[in-house]
Amino acid sequence: MLQDYGYIALFVVAAVLFSLVAITIPVILRFIKVIPSKPDPVKLSTYECGMETIGKAWVQFNPRYYFYALVFLALDVLVVFLYPWAVGIRELGMAGFGLALLMVAIILVGYIYAWKKKVLEWK
Amino acid sequence: MNIVYHGIAVPDMKQLPPDWPGGFFWHWLVFTVIIFTFVFTLVMAFTWVERRGLGRMQSRLGPNRAGPFGILQPVADAIKVLLKEDIVPSRSDRIVHWLAPVVAFFPALLIFAVVPFQNGALLADLDIGILYVVAISSVSTVGIFMAGWGSSNKFSLLGAMRNVAAVVSYEMPLVLAVIGVVLIAGSLSMNQIVLAQDIPLILLQPLGFLIVFIAGCAEINRSPFDLMEADSEIVAGFHTEYSGMKFAMFYLVEYAEALALSAIIATLFLGGWRGPVLPPWLWLVIKVFAVFFLMVWTRTTLPRIRIDQLMALAWKFLFPLALINLAITGLQVVAWPDALPWTMIIVNFAIAAVLIVLWSRLFKVGWGRVEV
Predict the structure, then answer these.
(1) What is the ipTM of this complex?
(2) pTM of the model
(3) Which among B102, B240, B249 has the least Cβ separation from residue A47?
(4) Which residues on chain A are in Cβ contact (under 8 Å) with B36?
(5) Domains of chain B: total
(6) Which domains, and CATH codes, for chain A?
(7) How far apart are CA B317 and CA B166, in angstroms?
(8) Domain span at residue B344?
(9) Stretch A115-120: mean pLDDT, rounded?
């Protein structure tokens, strides 16, 4: 089994190396003057459909995104517990099924609360 | 040591001990080459199929100049994009901007490590295969957010934020619907899931298939959920400021993810490599193309939805349905483990139809004009 994770680790190395090489090829090509490189201030400015950029792009963002992330976090923890349950459900039988439903119900209270509080609305 | 399957001798690499050069590295090398070839060939085929298919569905020709039927168009595009000037905006965060394509690209490749091409023929037969897919597939989002943040462009940041919000929202129904498959197959290993499918699971899990398809399309920014790169409002979203090879990488990520989703759906719901007469790998490719054709079809058919509709669809429509689907599937597996498959198929299709109709009566995804 550990062997399989070895394959994955080596494959990660291969995939990352491949992407790095793919990104580096244009740098080399620019060095040997196959790819043009003629920077000028207008070309390097931020693209906003021809408008001049006002201020920075790194601004404070809408907190709405944060609520979704919180709800997601709570529910994702639930799902991680559901995976091993799903594999073993034939041995666990009806009792295991009932307990999983109970756990889902507990988490669902939070979900319904979030719905009632209009956290899930995009307003 | 060979296993004979469908008349083809398959070297049984897993039986060999992990020592160089006999088993371990040989197996790794063979499958790494296979995966890279598989991904790049099919991504090129996908771009061609998508552009020709879109052209056909929109009563125009599509690319038809490079080679017969324009079949060399992807090659021409690749060469063109490789020779473009690499423009990095002066205000950008250079390191983040440069690394973003790498971080976005390699997870898309990693998914294929657990996709079986035939019985036992996969890079790593992890016993947590599908959980691995679920975990790895979200890593690309980090790269996409890096791209949006590093570009120092408002459009890019907005696109990246929308992408993160969409991935976070659609992850829930996707993951819950996949549990339905795990319940029936009784294993997380992709190979075991395929072996457990004497009938394709799409028949036993019609609702699960729909949810996975819709949520998957939303996660990889396919139309009609492509408002994180909506050209008409935020130019191209997170890759507005990318050009040349780095832009090509993001293009590649998009299609590699579409390929990954097609391969996962084909494996989980359509029986993977299983099929009569033809060799197993060809069956997998056929099923992958079938799923991808469905994606192209939805893309031409449906208009782009709004951000509030996107969120409402995930949280109020797909998520409850996925939970109900999970409960029903669990009950069926526990209470009637030996029920005839045909009864189950009819019952499940009926349940899916009733649930979808009921839920769309109960709740409407934002009508009319909304200020967002």
Answers:
(1) 0.85
(2) 0.86
(3) B240
(4) 18
(5) 1
(6) 2-116 (1.20.58.1610)
(7) 14
(8) 88-362
(9) 79
